[in-house]
From TrEMBL:
Keyword Lyase part of the UniProt annotation: yes
Top-level taxon: Bacteria
UniProt-listed InterPro entries: ClpP/crotonase-like_dom_sf, Enoyl-CoA_hyd/isom_CS, Enoyl-CoA_hydra/iso, Enoyl-CoA_hydra_C
Keywords: Lyase
Statement: the UniProt record of this protein carries the keyword Protein biosynthesis: no
Family stated for the protein in its record: Belongs to the enoyl-CoA hydratase/isomerase family.
SUPFAM superfamilies: ClpP/crotonase
BP GO annotations: fatty acid beta-oxidation
Protein name (Swiss-Prot/TrEMBL): Enoyl-CoA hydratase
Length: 259
């Protein structure tokens, strides 16, 4: 089995309408990403990005791990050829990561267990991150004799910080969830049995807020991440939007807004 990427609603309960879950599923391999899974990640996110009924997306590994890295068993079949290696990183891997970065709604990473290599890259594409106390983070690919690909490196350095990235890559350091939280990469760090409840609470809070505001905030933050000032086309075009009016009027009328 080459693993799969799944997509389903978070639950069938009406209050969770708009919350969807992307699952990373590779049994027996701690959800290591195969080539087929990278392609499936891109296709799944492109489908999500085209929907209008999604307000929050949760990315979560199945079972005891988030994602332990790449499926190394596949590597001898393509990594020793420059053209194939280029296609793998620039098309397959980056295609999946870019689709996740392009998601217009807030994305929450629910991290338990191993979050290594590809797992660090995928979680770096998410807006909010919740992890269990036993989660481990690293990218010990120097042990395999290769560096992190350029665009993947830029993403990871930006999100985990320069010194953490240097230690991950140059000394194969592995960090605990508590350490990653101290470095600002993680939000809540919780007991394993609390992960789903905390992620659900986070997703509910996100989904209850203005989808318009979320989309515009993500556009602005994406511009900042690319090294410029927030460059949203017509940044005040929302002035007459129904969500804008509802938010202001609800506050003045002392009631909960209905977005």
């Amino acid at each position: 089995m080459t693993g799969q990427i799944t997509l389903r609603p978070w639950s069938a309960q009406p209050q969770h309408a708009g919350i969807w879950r992307v699952g990373i599923d590779h049994p027996g391999k701690l959800n290591a990403m195969s080539r087929a899974m990278w392609v499936a990640l891109r296709e799944t996110l492109q489908a999500v990005n085209a929907r209008s009924d999604v307000r929050c997306l949760v990315v979560q590994g199945e079972g005891a791990a988030f994602c332990a890295g790449g499926d190394i068993a596949e590597y001898p079949g393509f990594r020793f050829d420059e053209a194939q290696l280029t296609h793998f990183h620039e098309s397959e891997v980056w295609g999946g990561l870019q689709a996740l970065l392009d998601c217009p709604v807030p994305v929450v990473a629910a991290i338990r267990g191993a979050c290594m290599g590809a797992g660090v890259e995928i979680s770096s594409c998410c807006d909010l991150r919740v992890a269990t106390e036993d989660a481990k983070f690293g990218a010990p690919i120097a042990r395999l004799g290769f560096p992190m690909a350029p665009r993947e490196l830029e993403l990871v350095v930006r999100e985990v910080g320069s010194m953490v990235a240097r230690r991950m890559l140059l000394e194969a350091a592995v960090f605990s969830a508590a350490e990653m939280a101290q470095h600002g990469f993680l939000g809540p760090v919780v007991a394993a049995e609390q992960l789903d409840a905390v992620v659900q609470d986070t997703a509910e809070k996100v989904a209850a807020l203005s989808p318009l505001a979320a989309r515009l905030n993500k556009q602005g933050m994406r511009s900042l991440a690319q090294g410029g000032v927030p460059a949203v086309a017509q940044p005040y075009a929302y002035a007459d939007d129904a969500e804008h009016r509802e938010g202001i009027h609800a506050f003045l009328e002392k009631r909960k807004p209905q977005f």
